[in-house]
Amino acid sequence: MARNDGTWGINTQLAHEGNDPRDYFGFVNPPVVHASTVLYPNAATMAGRSQKYTYGTRGTPTTDALAAAIDTLEGSAGTIVVPSGLAAVTVPLLAFAAAGDHVLIVDSVYHPTRHFADTMLKRLGVEVEYYDPHVGAGISKLIKANTSIVFTESPASNTFEVQDIPAIAKAAKAAGAVVMMDNTWATPLYFKPLDYGVDISIHAATKYPGGHSDVLLGTVSANETCWERLHEGFVTLGCCAGPDDVYQVLRGLRTMGVRLEHHRKSALEIATWLEAQPGVARVLHPALPSHPDHALWRRDFSGSSGVFSIVLAGGGQKEQHAFLDALTIFGLGYSWGGYESLAVPVFLGDRVVAQAPEEGPVIRLQIGLEDVADLKADLLRGLAAASA
Known about the structure:
Blueprint: H1 10-16, H2 43-48, H3 61-74, E1 78-82, H4 85-96, E2 102-106, H5 111-123, E3 127-131, E4 147-153, H6 165-174, E5 178-182, H7 187-190, E6 200-204, E7 218-222, H8 224-237, H9 243-253, H10 256-274, E8 280-284, H11 294-300, E9 307-312, H12 317-326, E10 342-346, E11 362-366, H13 372-387
Parallel strand pairs: 2-3, 2-4, 4-5, 5-6
Antiparallel strand pairs: 1-7, 6-7, 8-9, 9-11, 10-11
Helix pairs in contact: 3-9, 4-5, 4-8, 12-13
């Protein structure tokens, strides 16, 4: 079977990277290895740990298959696989932050990341400061002598501001800080963080790689400079993922390209349509020309995914809840990236720098794989209920 010579397209990579059927007697998918103990052939090998696999927490053929596929997509030196998207955030933060350090985190970050920073990181003696998502090269003014990490997320959770990642990365690395990015929204298909100066790329593989709302997983990929420390932190914390979950994500990865393209097209069509609907003050989708960061998105990203938000024209929680309760196809549930459409009320009261929309309540939509006409009809039900 031919191997990638660097010319394969993305869907060919997704279909074939991460395992070689010849390694497993011709079976297309790698085995699901359930392992804790690994046996050694003799005492000398055991003492020197001089074999590929030494214990289940340190990797198996199953985790290696997924990590190798992700490395190909990311262009990374190594990838760790952890039990959830949140673990993909917390493990690198714990691996690179130390007591007395100063950490800069974008103010529009995923809320569980903020909660971890405000609780555990602060209890461990780390100073946490939030910055405006539009800071760009201006982040150099916020960097201190003890700044160890600049944490980015672009587009932003819930409000979808686009960060100038190259400018932030350049300023941060000039000061010796490690740059991390939560790239779950775009996936490495539409944005490759390490190509733009980021050191560590973070993904909730629960979302598009898994794709079916039935598995929790996270991946963290690092460049050559940061890989050894990331891996050491991962091994030290013992935060390894279960083999069945890893296998499900590897299987989901094979179809992620075609699924993501469907999400992209449907979401963009619906977002464009929503801009013209009464009761909608604003649509927060960076691929729309009306988005204030659209030019920056076009410069850096090669595509958009299926998640965006709308701002209702006036009202408050009553109208927000009326909209959500009128939906029949959109489910009310957290997460996204699965085949089904979802809607959630957005709370932005935890922000300290970034500006929240003022026109009305915000609702985040995940556009699934259903027919667009049916989703539009459902959203009209929500808008009618909110206006009533």
